[in-house]
């Protein structure tokens, strides 16, 4: 899966990681659409994760925090667990599925060869896709007739997923793209393996053309996905191609830059021509275009970037240096160019990488310190420079500078987790830490990890106070385990106040179920059953005209 962490706030992500590491995720199962799991929090919550082509498309959790569509820590915990899966496909099958598979194999092994051949023939005659698969997988060569049938298969996918006017609506768009992807993976892969590169190239182009000219509701950016897949196949084919085949492909890309596909997909053809063909003429033209970009930024520390639909944004000066290498510029020329544009952070980052690879730590430290000053207005760069310095000082045993840089990191940079705060605490004696702790508590830079820090420092009074005044009930749930031990009565009373206020607001059965869940939670505290009984009796009088609420009270045993 890609980029799923970007869907969560950093504090929610951290809590999800804690839940996962503490073993709160159980019953993780593969479903038809992704995964399901049980995540233990203050209660057991059902979590469902929908995944399509390696990306998270939808999530559900039965916790109250997620009922308005917000992504919660339980979802994050489940995703950490999914990321941690190291099973092969057989491990992802249920025990019953494994038994069924073995039983089927056992039966198939008993079928006589002549009967198997007849069964295969009948299936191939009934299924065009299967017939095409056999014809390219096992034939000595791919005939024009077979290529025509393969193209017809592509056309059929488009027709089956569109209305009578050739339009693919949103509900069919995903199926349309999935079937096109499966076609590429099943058919083009085989052709490349057989070294039938001309046919593989022709078929990939046909899929690209079909998708690129289909009228589709592309709300989920489905066409970009299949365009990227075609681009990947073009790269595979180009890599295996001989010189004559490369020239043929080059000419095709040159002559199909315009009007082959509609809208922005034409950029993929233009981009492939520029980025993948190692032709001196095109690479030198790229240098000119990059120089125009770089010149615009020559008095800044950021050199700008170029964009291609497949590669995304690329640092302009790094791309230029790579092209210089491809054009066989001498190292002296490249070093001279780097020196000229050393004001750009990307050049200095290359220097740092080189010094670190050679374990020339003094030189790396020198450039990192210099870069912290030059790039002082770029938060992300300074953050990274500081963290690199911390690692170098730790590795080289320079405790004085290590501690000094940790202070800079904690007191001057935004904190997204407690890693560097914990490292600073270890590096300090007790008196120093007490002083630093007070200073940290007054920092806005730790707002995203403030509650975690208070819990770490066992400042439970302050933690509960701040949760009450600036947090949510979900925050209280997060820290209930410790707060219920240290401040049980106050924690119980916060939950009581929550259910009383929440009862005034909620008006549906889902909300009432949530109230019952918190009443059960309150009843587990000392004196909680008496308080819950009082609340339930008041509600029976006050909200007697809410039949759904009364029903939930009854079902919950109140």
Structural features:
558 residues; alpha+beta; 27 helices; 8 strands; 7% strand; flat
Task: Describe the fold and architecture.
The protein is of the alpha+beta class and 558 residues long. It is built from 27 helices and eight strands. It has helices spanning 10-21, 73-83, 95-108, 113-126, 128-138, 144-160, 170-193, 197-212, 222-240, 243-255, 266-276, 280-296, 316-326, 331-340, 345-357, 361-374, 379-396, 399-412, 419-427, 430-441, 450-456, 460-470, 473-486, 488-505, 509-523, 528-542, 547-555, and strands spanning 25-30, 34-40, 44-52, 55-61, 167-168, 215-216, 305-308, 312-315. The protein has a four-stranded antiparallel sheet. The chain has a two-stranded parallel sheet with strand order 5-6. The chain is flat. Mean pLDDT is 90; it is low at 86-94.
Brief synopsis:
The chain contains 27 helices and eight strands. The protein has helices at residues 10-21, 73-83, 95-108, 113-126, 128-138, 144-160, 170-193, 197-212, 222-240, 243-255, 266-276, 280-296, 316-326, 331-340, 345-357, 361-374, 379-396, 399-412, 419-427, 430-441, 450-456, 460-470, 473-486, 488-505, 509-523, 528-542, 547-555; strands at residues 25-30, 34-40, 44-52, 55-61, 167-168, 215-216, 305-308, 312-315. A hairpin with a 3-residue loop joins strand 1 (25-30) and strand 2 (34-40).
């Amino acid at each position: 899966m890609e980029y799923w962490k970007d869907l969560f706030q950093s504090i929610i992500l951290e809590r999800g990681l804690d839940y996962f590491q503490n073993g709160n995720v159980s019953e993780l199962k593969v479903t038809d659409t992704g995964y399901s799991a049980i995540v233990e929090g203050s209660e057991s919550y059902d979590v469902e994760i929908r995944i399509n082509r390696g990306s998270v498309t939808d999530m559900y959790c039965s916790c109250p925090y997620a009922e308005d569509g917000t992504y919660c820590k339980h979802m994050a915990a489940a995703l950490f667990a999914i990321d941690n899966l190291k099973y092969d496909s057989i491990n992802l099958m249920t025990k019953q599925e494994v038994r069924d598979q073995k039983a089927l194999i056992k039966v198939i092994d008993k079928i006589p060869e002549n009967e198997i051949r007849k069964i295969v023939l009948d299936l191939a005659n009934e299924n065009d896709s299967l017939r095409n698969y056999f014809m390219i997988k096992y034939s000595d060569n791919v005939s024009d007739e077979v290529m025509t049938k393969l193209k017809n298969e592509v056309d059929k996918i488009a027709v089956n997923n569109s209305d009578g006017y050739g339009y693919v609506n949103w509900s069919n768009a995903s199926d349309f793209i999935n079937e096109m992807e499966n076609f590429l993976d099943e058919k083009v892969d085989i052709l490349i393996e057989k070294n039938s590169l001309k046919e593989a190239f022709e078929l990939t182009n046909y899929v690209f053309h079909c998708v690129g000219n289909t009228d589709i509701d592309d709300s989920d950016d489905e066409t970009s996905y299949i365009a990227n897949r075609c681009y990947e196949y073009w790269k595979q084919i180009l890599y295996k191609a001989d010189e004559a085949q490369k020239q043929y492909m080059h000419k095709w890309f040159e002559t199909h830059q315009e009007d082959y596909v509609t809208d922005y997909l034409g950029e993929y053809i233009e981009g492939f021509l520029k980025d993948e063909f190692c032709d001196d003429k095109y690479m030198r033209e790229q240098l000119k275009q990059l120089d125009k970009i770089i010149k615009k930024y020559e008095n800044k520390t950021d050199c700008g970037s170029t964009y291609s639909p497949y590669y995304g944004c690329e640092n302009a000066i790094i791309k230029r240096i790579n092209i210089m290498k491809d054009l066989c510029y001498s190292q002296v020329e490249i070093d001279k160019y780097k020196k000229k544009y050393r004001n750009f952070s990307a050049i200095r980052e290359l220097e740092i990488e080189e010094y670190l690879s050679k374990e020339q730590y003094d030189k790396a430290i020198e450039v990192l310190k210099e870069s912290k000053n030059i790039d002082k207005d770029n938060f992300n760069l300074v953050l990274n420079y500081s963290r690199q310095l911390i690692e170098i000082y730790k590795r080289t045993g320079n405790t004085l500078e290590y501690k000094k840089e940790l202070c800079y990191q904690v007191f001057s940079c935004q904190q997204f987790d407690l890693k560097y705060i914990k490292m600073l605490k270890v590096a300090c004696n007790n008196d120093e830490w007490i002083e630093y702790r007070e200073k940290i508590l007054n920092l806005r830079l730790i707002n995203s990890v403030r509650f975690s820090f208070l819990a770490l420092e066992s400042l439970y009074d302050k933690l509960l106070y701040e949760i009450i005044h600036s947090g949510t009930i979900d925050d209280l749930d997060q820290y209930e385990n410790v707060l219920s031990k240290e401040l049980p009565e106050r924690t119980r009373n916060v939950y009581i106040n929550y259910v009383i206020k929440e009862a005034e607001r909620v008006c549906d059965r889902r909300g009432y179920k949530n109230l019952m869940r918190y009443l059960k939670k309150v009843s587990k505290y000392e004196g909680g059953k008496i308080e819950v009984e009082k609340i339930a009796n008041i509600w029976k009088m006050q909200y007697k005209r809410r039949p759904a609420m009364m029903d939930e009270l009854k079902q919950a045993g109140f």
